[in-house]
Amino acid sequence: MVPRYSRPEMVAIWSPETKFRIWFEIEAHACDAQAALGVIPQEAAEAVWTAKDVAFDVARIDAIEAEVKHDVIAFLTHLAEHVGPMARYVHQGLTSSDVLDTCLNVQLTRAADILLADLDALLAALKARALEHRNTVCIGRSHGIHAEPTTFGLKMAQAYAEFARARARLVAARAEVATCAISGAVGTFASIDPAVEAHVAARLGLAIEPISTQVIPRDRHAAFFACLAVIASSVERLATEVRHLQRTEVLEAEEYFSPGQKGSSAMPHKRNPVLTENLTGLARLVRGYAMPAMENVALWHERDISHSSVERAIGPDATITLDFALARLTGVIAKLVVYPEAMERNLNKFRGLVHSQGVLLALTQAGLSREDSYRLVQRNAMKVWEQGADFLTELKADAEITAALDGATLDAIFDLARHTRQVDAIFARVFGEA
Amino acid sequence: MVPRYSRPEMVAIWSPETKFRIWFEIEAHACDAQAALGVIPQEAAEAVWTAKDVAFDVARIDAIEAEVKHDVIAFLTHLAEHVGPMARYVHQGLTSSDVLDTCLNVQLTRAADILLADLDALLAALKARALEHRNTVCIGRSHGIHAEPTTFGLKMAQAYAEFARARARLVAARAEVATCAISGAVGTFASIDPAVEAHVAARLGLAIEPISTQVIPRDRHAAFFACLAVIASSVERLATEVRHLQRTEVLEAEEYFSPGQKGSSAMPHKRNPVLTENLTGLARLVRGYAMPAMENVALWHERDISHSSVERAIGPDATITLDFALARLTGVIAKLVVYPEAMERNLNKFRGLVHSQGVLLALTQAGLSREDSYRLVQRNAMKVWEQGADFLTELKADAEITAALDGATLDAIFDLARHTRQVDAIFARVFGEA
Amino acid sequence: MVPRYSRPEMVAIWSPETKFRIWFEIEAHACDAQAALGVIPQEAAEAVWTAKDVAFDVARIDAIEAEVKHDVIAFLTHLAEHVGPMARYVHQGLTSSDVLDTCLNVQLTRAADILLADLDALLAALKARALEHRNTVCIGRSHGIHAEPTTFGLKMAQAYAEFARARARLVAARAEVATCAISGAVGTFASIDPAVEAHVAARLGLAIEPISTQVIPRDRHAAFFACLAVIASSVERLATEVRHLQRTEVLEAEEYFSPGQKGSSAMPHKRNPVLTENLTGLARLVRGYAMPAMENVALWHERDISHSSVERAIGPDATITLDFALARLTGVIAKLVVYPEAMERNLNKFRGLVHSQGVLLALTQAGLSREDSYRLVQRNAMKVWEQGADFLTELKADAEITAALDGATLDAIFDLARHTRQVDAIFARVFGEA
Amino acid sequence: MVPRYSRPEMVAIWSPETKFRIWFEIEAHACDAQAALGVIPQEAAEAVWTAKDVAFDVARIDAIEAEVKHDVIAFLTHLAEHVGPMARYVHQGLTSSDVLDTCLNVQLTRAADILLADLDALLAALKARALEHRNTVCIGRSHGIHAEPTTFGLKMAQAYAEFARARARLVAARAEVATCAISGAVGTFASIDPAVEAHVAARLGLAIEPISTQVIPRDRHAAFFACLAVIASSVERLATEVRHLQRTEVLEAEEYFSPGQKGSSAMPHKRNPVLTENLTGLARLVRGYAMPAMENVALWHERDISHSSVERAIGPDATITLDFALARLTGVIAKLVVYPEAMERNLNKFRGLVHSQGVLLALTQAGLSREDSYRLVQRNAMKVWEQGADFLTELKADAEITAALDGATLDAIFDLARHTRQVDAIFARVFGEA
């Protein structure tokens, strides 16, 4: 976790305070269930809840852990300092992993909830810009080379559709990790009734883990972090688009540059897309965290603890980084300065050549062979390319062309409206509008 | 693709023959739709279908491609050799990527269908072994160290639940890539009616891609390959379990070893878990393929072609390798030789010490403090550990113990049935049985 | 291995024919050493060499392997068909891994030799273009935004320096895997004299593996494949540079486009940097292969065979792909079409603004405060940016500027020679020239 | 960076205080060189050094950065608060990256120095244990299955050789990143003399970067982090060995378990290899950090800043994690509790069957055919395997065997000394002893 790429709400999920609070809730709910089953006295369960509003002393717990070398025992020892003798009924029949794994899943589902809200904000920003620039025509580029016209709104709509998919994936990934296991030493419920698990799960808003083996299986977490990695890759895609549009020679859009930002006006051309470059790097990080998550799956037998160090790092790192990245990307999109005139200027750079494919197609449809169509387009295109002529003018002056296509047909081919006429239909697919 | 780790059905999906067959279908269906729209003559569409049963000549197409340096044009040229002059109506308004990307998605969905069938076979094998060994008790191990008893059936049931999740993920991943795009140069439908896409999609059993930009967005494919990588990690988990169980000192289960297999009886102890070791390696490969798939997402603007070389490699490699791995794993599980006597022998290695946690818990529940309970268990456990005594015998001879727990209670703690009593409940969760 | 991204010389290294040839040499050299030690008869060693020119029958060996399920035994059985009864002395005291691992290392060192030659060719191409364009001035860009002038020769020189480092790394990586182990079942030489290993190593041009454990340790191979991955990343960097330079709006350089290449002149603007896009994808693949190589290191105890399936895939895939990529990149660089006029045009896009930093520095050195310098530059820069004025003209007309910097000083700041005066010094560092 | 997996010396390298201290040194040395060149006044250079012992105020610098949004300018502003008006001569002709990149390389080389010391400590521990257990015989295992005898000292010697290679790689990787660049806006030295770079490099113990482009090229850093990833994989190998040896059924060695460690004696069998499991997880993390480092190589043109966020994370994370892992591993090895009796017991588990290969070989060398040798060994081996007989006894009672091999020969085959006789020779290779 790099502080400058962190937002407090997500950071808080991973604080020791939050962790101990969740541990407390798991233990206290488990006591309620055990009391209901008659395994422990009702007053023991009630006594535990007296610590409900305690701010657990992290330093104290750490000090105990340094001695007993066991984090859950350290916490329980500290809890007993608040709860008193009834504390001996706490954690009965549970294994440490019941607490640790269920807590991790609570943290991951909370993190997912923040990320889902992040995605909602990003989707809203993308939709707003898509609608705003629905018909703002710009050149579409394949291979970085001018292809045919598209609109800036379509760029935003494509990103919207991509992040809508990301959202759906994250909802599924959240469900994968939203499970609770209270099943004892190797998951057999030998010392605890499954009703305890059911109760704790219900109170924490989790599903029960159908079968655990001391640990909740790590394929769930691998799927979760892989999902974050794919989302990060989509962040990179959109960030890369902005970086390209802001290139000096393209300059069709720019990250917002606050008036006070140093260096802006002594070198007015030097406004760097630093936010989206930063996002590109953050995407690499989140992607990198997926590999150790996948290597965590193959634990030995009923469990080993090799996953733990990995999760202590990537649990916070992946969620905090992606949260920051999504929020930053939302800001970039919402405030992106768009230059429709520059888009038009770039589009017209080659005086109509972007319509050559349209002419080719029309000639073929008019009955010419592919070879003839090609030859006719070619000889006019080369005049544009080599002599700077205007493509439409040349075509209209070419008798072989006009024999096949009249002026109105040629005008229609060069009409940008041809490229925007399906925009509403596409928007309806993406945004569900009429 | 390594031949020895390949199965013909999956390999066939990635053959040039299959690819050209799919290309043909896309083009032919598109012609039908174009004819219905009146864009091309009905007889042109019909003429194309005359090539329906043609076995396209891969070498011929390759030869043309070597000349024109464009794979789709090479195919269309060859197609014209079969279809005749009407071939000039083929591909009108389409861009190469419409064909290539839709074809890739057809291949990936077919690959997914094979993998789903593989998973079904694996699930069936796991369920059969789970039911067979539902109550075959063995020691559960955490950290590779004996913990408490579990059953071999529970191990199989856990794997079943894990691969059932894998299956659900793959169904979702299949849906991600089951889309069709016929949207023209930069996805604006400037030269083609969306109805063509709708028709082709329907005929191929795909959904329409709501918004494409010459290419179908690669976040879909990244999610697909990431899903395969997570499944491979689950393969590794189960393979690792078998490898551990087959270790000389453990030997609770063995991969089936055919009578004729070289070396078996001159070194009867030397039966190596080579299949599951092999699966461990294959899992690494499939995992590794996920990274380039994720890096493929951030294409430039409306598309660049950097993804193509990646997909030519990992498309076949990831699906063929995982198909082989799942089939091999199914065989390993179905034929796994299980040694219940060895399980029992290992379980009893420490003469009852595996029940020490149960005794501790019972003492605490009987009202002793944690510290006292611990001290009592400890002094008896050390006799077992150091002198080879029997734990239950020692406990029954310890007056402080028997003051808290009578003989029947102690017997109950040492009763293995305590560890299997919830097996049916867990099986009901996993397999949905009564 | 994708055939279209493969070159025959590298592919041949990984053919079964090559593998069996290497196996033969290992066995035959080992027999010589064993005969010299008196372990086997001299005539046995000589008999083996009678098969020196045999083209081993791969199909026959495969058929035997299908039966005995052991590749080395299958080969030895086939070898005996050529050598006769003396064949029973072959392989005595060796373990299969002695042959397999030493063979893999022979293949990897040969692959490294090809890659080193590839790098030499690439370095030669880079040097030639660097010298050719030593002083071809172009704008340097940070963040994709115009910064200060540099030269195209410096771009090539930087790439040269980077691939010279790549070469040095590969020499080291080659040495890592250039070892031979003939040490028996678990590496103790219990059944074979170390002199055999020494002899075989010497004949194959390898070092002895100081300590093996049936297998040659896989950290060596992980380092090797990691080295290839880093080189691939450098390929991606240079490929990305070309892709950027070929963008429609930049167009300072272009991949060579053969006259016959389809589509070139009907859309003369549409020359796509498909080779370098392809290289970008190939780089992702080679990078991805490094992860499984690293996971191969942690074999169990003296060895497990999980590494084998990984190496059967990535051994060929990584080396063949990188070989192809380096050769393709060399072609791209050697034939790259460079447009110095376009470079000059882009450089002058902002009428001198790229020199604003130089003016700022000169003002500061002339004694003005940072703040005052900044204010003076800013007010003139904004006239250029907003009104299209010429920067130098404006500065010379600004009394506060001229009070600090006279005309000659300003001219010197705007002299491009200021940016090229150290080019020779840098070239001397890179190419070791005077 | 996870605090519990961090050691203070390495953490300190990455503190803001250290970073600003290095920045100061770079700037101050650059001023000395500029003064020597006559570019700035001598007294300016001297004035800067008055801040030599200043503890820079991180909070103050952060506050300035929040305003100016530029970290280096914020630092220089704060520096001016200490140095006074002469501060305006600081940083003249430098670009921010000159400071940032050179600083990063100073940090990485310091980190490498700590890691090299870590490796030295680990090597010392391994050597000590190797010498201690040079001839402590234990069973060697391939595939987790008993193969032939080896010694525990050889296991340690193999690890020693592996980490000696790791050390050599790290020395090379350190040299890769031990460079200094002070070359101005795009690396052309347009505004600064190369002599400044040479001076600063010399004072910081770095080499000059032969050619930079505002940034020091990131292939250097990719190679560095890839090196750490390979070392981490070796950590995982040795950690995995310990985990296996500590398995309940094997128990040939154990991590040291301090007397006070909770739970030890109530469950004396339950000593978990938690340190080496932890190391396994840490290795996954360090491996994962290599991927983003490789993706950092392909910066755009002369630089983009996407690498920066990656390095802010993995710079500390990779070095701190590996430092902790190496130190922890050294402790594990130094204090590992080794059980030679258990090794002997496991070795003899199958009553001599581990010598079956030796018998086979001897029979072949005595002139029997492979098939006959095999049949003879097999029929005796099966008696051992199925009836628990003693292998040597059976062989001596088999007339066909004794016809080929006399008793003394058989005894020699079963003599463990056969497996240790080359240990000294191997140790001489590894440790360079006589």
UniProtKB/TrEMBL annotation, chains A, B, C, D:
To which protein family does this belong?
A: Belongs to the lyase 1 family. Adenylosuccinate lyase subfamily.
Pathway(s) the chain acts in: Purine metabolism; AMP biosynthesis via de novo pathway; AMP from IMP: step 2/2; Purine metabolism; IMP biosynthesis via de novo pathway; 5-amino-1-(5-phospho-D-ribosyl)imidazole-4-carboxamide from 5-amino-1-(5-phospho-D-ribosyl)imidazole-4-carboxylate: step 2/2
Question: Which parts of the chain are coiled coil?
Answer: 116-176
This enzyme's EC code(s): 4.3.2.2
PROSITE patterns with a match to the protein in the record:
FUMARATE_LYASES (PS00163)
GO BP terms: namely:
'de novo' AMP biosynthetic process; 'de novo' IMP biosynthetic process
Catalytic activity from the UniProt record: (2S)-2-[5-amino-1-(5-phospho-beta-D-ribosyl)imidazole-4-carboxamido]succinate = 5-amino-1-(5-phospho-beta-D-ribosyl)imidazole-4-carboxamide + fumarate; N(6)-(1,2-dicarboxyethyl)-AMP = fumarate + AMP
Entry's SUPFAM superfamilies?
L-aspartase-like
- What GO molecular functions are on record for this protein? (S)-2-(5-amino-1-(5-phospho-D-ribosyl)imidazole-4-carboxamido) succinate lyase (fumarate-forming) activity; N6-(1,2-dicarboxyethyl)AMP AMP-lyase (fumarate-forming) activity
Q: What are the UniProt keywords, alphabetically?
A: Coiled coil, Lyase, Purine biosynthesis
Q: Name one Pfam family in it.
A: ADSL_C
| SMART domains noted in UniProt | ADSL_C
Taxonomically, which superkingdom? Bacteria
Gene Ontology CC annotation, any one: cytosol
Output the InterPro entries linked to this UniProt entry.
Answer: AdenyloSucc_lyase_C, Fumarase/histidase_N, Fumarate_lyase_CS, Fumarate_lyase_fam, Fumarate_lyase_N, L-Aspartase-like, Pur_lyase
The record, for CDD domains, names: Adenylsuccinate_lyase_1 (cd01360)
Q: Which Gene3D superfamilies match?
A: Fumarase/aspartase (C-terminal domain), Fumarase/aspartase (Central domain), Fumarase/aspartase (N-terminal domain)
Domain spans labelled Adenylosuccinate lyase C-terminal: 351-431
Q: What is this protein called?
A: Adenylosuccinate lyase
